[in-house]
């Protein structure tokens, strides 16, 4: 499934240049892709992480200008609204005058409702909010709920924002009810924007005891790859508040980078997230030696396309092989460069219908020996909520938008850019990309201090109608030249402008706006 968007190169370049915003780019913040739609989960959280939002599971995400953070526990993502809505959640630090601003907008950006929200809490500590508001519904269609901490200095459009995607119901439809008993979660450790170790220690509080007292902890990198997952039993009694704590080992990235820690609980009825909190952190890099598979993380849930990344390999030519428990085999030949391998593994044509099951990922050398293996749980995306994103590829003198189906996530902008970075595969394999490939990175003749083997997304945040995308230092291998740069800008523009709120796109490399210049 692809949506064709062919155009002459002249038109493509004109589109890029006409949309190029002034390069007054704020310094890149150490946050994961921040997008403008619910922060990663069934509620949203404002953080400088890929907002709009991990979710490789049901997680929301939001945009942030400071170290504060807002977590939304209601309404759920994509809730169907009629004439009223309940908005509830927490903010890490009690806001000025203990007041936030609630903004409900239709897809065209028009305001459906705007008004203050009172919070309950003390200055210097966290606060909660829970309000139900009535509004006059717009025409049926998409919308967004924004909970905003305004910047009282007037220097910024806001200090912190959390956003949740919703749907406005057609006349006569029934509204989606928010969870009857949303659980408010606060992560007290790790602190926002802290540097963590591996294992990572965590602790937090719950406003009520969840089903079976179970709290799930997940660690994600800046591209929303799940690096580790565990669950702990909360301390406390049913009917009262509780606490939780523990530690989690995670698959360390190849370089120190921004990540996110999420704590959430689910409903026993339908598995929906009923409480969530998250912290933006700096993850340590892998410090080992020898062959190491950085992605996917072992014993985690995964899906196709499967992003495979390994370093310290002893050969040049490999077969990446995925063995499903039912005997199905998916494999692809690829090459390692300077011991580094990166591959997005999927079927070349229509995939077989496979249920969720265990699988073993193998990196097999040319002599048939297996150098690395990883146990996984491969998901059947047809049996769970999903998100569809478009990714722009180059096709001759025009462009084409490929379609990727992913597990449900509110961080759709981050998810779309992640797929863009990993390149065209499967039905899109015949197309190309201006993003530097692992080979281009390996062949780069300049200073490569601190480089890994590929470009990765450091962060994306949306402020007003502009998306700010920050790439890793490997983007310096982009090749140069006005035509190539405009192709790169066009790919990112078209990928992000599928989201109505994005009108302009600004790109930086580790916060430097001068790298991507003709």
TrEMBL record:
Q: Does the keyword Iron-sulfur apply?
A: no
What PROSITE patterns does the annotation carry? PROKAR_LIPOPROTEIN (PS51257)
Q: What residue range is the signal peptide?
A: 1-22
Signal is among the record's keywords: yes
InterPro entries annotated for this entry?
GerMN, Gmad2_Ig-like_dom
TM segment ranges: none
Domain GerMN, by residue range, is 413-518
Keywords associated with the record: Signal
One of its Pfam families is: Gmad2
Reading the lineage from the top rank, the first entry is: Bacteria
* Name this protein carries in UniProt: GerMN domain-containing protein
Its source organism is Herpetosiphon geysericola
């Amino acid at each position: 499934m692809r949506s064709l968007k062919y155009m002459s190169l002249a038109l493509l370049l004109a589109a890029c240049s006409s949309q190029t915003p002034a390069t007054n780019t704020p310094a890149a913040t150490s946050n994961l892709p921040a997008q403008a739609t619910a922060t990663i989960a069934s509620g949203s959280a404002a953080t400088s992480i890929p907002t709009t939002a991990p979710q490789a599971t049901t997680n929301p995400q939001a945009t942030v200008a400071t170290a504060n953070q807002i977590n939304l526990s209601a309404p759920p993502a994509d809730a169907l609204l009629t004439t009223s809505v309940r908005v509830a959640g927490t903010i890490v630090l009690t806001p000025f005058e203990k007041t936030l601003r609630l903004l409900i907008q239709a897809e065209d950006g028009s305001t459906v409702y705007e008004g203050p929200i009172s919070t309950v809490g003390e200055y210097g500590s966290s606060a909660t909010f829970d309000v139900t508001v009535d509004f006059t519904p717009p025409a049926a269609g998409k919308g967004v709920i924004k909970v905003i901490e305004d910047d009282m200095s007037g220097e910024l459009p806001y200090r912190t924002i959390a956003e949740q995607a919703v749907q406005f119901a057609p006349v006569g439809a029934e509204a989606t009810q928010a969870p009857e008993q949303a659980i408010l979660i606060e992560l007290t450790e790790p602190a926002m924007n802290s540097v963590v170790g591996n294992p990572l220690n965590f602790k937090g509080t719950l406003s009520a005891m969840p089903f079976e007292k179970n709290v799930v902890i997940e660690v994600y990198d800046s591209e929303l790859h799940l690096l580790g997952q565990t669950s702990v039993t909360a301390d406390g009694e049913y009917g009262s508040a509780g606490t939780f704590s523990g530690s989690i080992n995670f698959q360390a990235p190849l370089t120190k980078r921004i990540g996110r820690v999420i704590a959430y609980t689910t409903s026993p009825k339908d598995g929906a997230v009923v409480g969530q909190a998250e912290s933006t952190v700096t993850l340590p890099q892998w410090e080992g030696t020898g062959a190491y598979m950085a992605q996917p993380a072992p014993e985690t849930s995964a899906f196709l396309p499967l992003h495979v990344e390994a370093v310290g390999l002893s050969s040049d030519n490999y077969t990446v092989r995925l063995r499903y428990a039912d005997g199905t085999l998916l494999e692809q030949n690829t090459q390692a460069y300077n011991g580094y391998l990166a591959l997005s593994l999927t079927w070349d044509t229509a995939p077989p219908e496979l249920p969720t099951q265990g699988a073993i990922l193998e990196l097999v050398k040319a002599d048939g020996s297996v150098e690395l293996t990883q146990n996984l749980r491969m998901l059947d995306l047809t049996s769970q909520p999903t998100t569809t994103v478009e990714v722009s590829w180059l096709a001759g003198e025009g462009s084409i938008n490929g379609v990727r189906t992913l597990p449900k996530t509110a961080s759709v902008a981050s998810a779309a850019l992640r797929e863009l970075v990993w390149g065209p595969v499967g039905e899109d394999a015949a197309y190309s990309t201006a993003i530097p490939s692992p080979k281009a990175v390996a062949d780069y003749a300049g200073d490569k201090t601190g480089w890994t083997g590929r470009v990765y997304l450091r962060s994306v945040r949306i402020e007003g109608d502009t998306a700010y995308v920050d790439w890793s230092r490997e983007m310096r291998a982009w090749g140069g030249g006005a035509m190539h740069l405009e192709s790169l800008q066009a790919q990112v523009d078209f990928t992000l402008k599928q989201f109505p709120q994005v009108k302009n796109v600004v790109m930086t490399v580790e916060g430097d706006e001068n790298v991507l210049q003709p």
